[in-house]
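Sample 1 of the test manifest.
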Amino acid sequence: MRVLGIDPGLTRCGVGVVEGVPGRPCKLIAYYIVHSQPDEDIALRLLHLDTSLADLVAEHKPESVAVERVFSQHNVRTVMGTAQASAVAVLAGARAGLPVQTYTPSEVKAAVTGSGTAGKAQVTAMVTRLLSLDAPPKPADAADALAIAICHIWRGGTRARIQAAAIAAARRGGVRR
Amino acid sequence: MRVLGIDPGLTRCGVGVVEGVPGRPCKLIAYYIVHSQPDEDIALRLLHLDTSLADLVAEHKPESVAVERVFSQHNVRTVMGTAQASAVAVLAGARAGLPVQTYTPSEVKAAVTGSGTAGKAQVTAMVTRLLSLDAPPKPADAADALAIAICHIWRGGTRARIQAAAIAAARRGGVRR
């Protein structure tokens, strides 16, 4: 199973592509950070993220997309940008007809480290080990996107497959207003 | 100038299409509420909103899109959904190559009623009068989307035109990662 994991952010959005099956070490395919400038127009920032994610989905042809769910623990301004980026991320998968699954930060941490309260360094160390990398991913925040993809692979894709059928049906059905 | 105004929401998203020039009564073209169910999968909800807005932009061919800017005065859960819907709304315009402008709620209220702290009933009454309607728009929350479109027409489109050039350039330029 090939999964594209997204750690949504408006200024820095992490993207990780991983292949694997539940319970075994996974294979790193690629990772990216999509950037935009905080002083840039919001329409341009969202359009850039949208185009970049659509390109990466087209390039890597994942079977599903996994996105970290936004929480409100940070300051409100940051959360709004993250929520907007997460909408673009979820849409990038849905528009390509792929199943999209969201995971909370603690679900992701628990999946890769065994602890839902693991620190950033621990997540990075486990991602490096689970993907059999010689060194941690650089930039470091790409590790989160890779962790999300690994989390999705290991938790299996049952929910994802049910949702894929629903998305396919919705796309066939046209628009409800 | 024909403007498509969007009052973003995940459960109910208001869309109003208005034609006019600054300072004169405007003409109502159409209004809609795009619905989705809170218990539905987030990917399906965002995809439905995305498809519906793209269809309405294609159908009405506005020259620009105006979106109400999200604020954090409400509860955090609502704000997250609204922020996600606003990203989809802004993208609907940007992806069609249109200039997209955002306005705060008080800018919209001030534009149509003269007061940035006007109540919902006052906004609805002014929208009804400014569009020369026999009765207030139904459902009532469509009035907000129409107010956003009127606000954009009356405030002129200078910023919008500058941004349109930037969007056109960004779409020509392909993807920066």
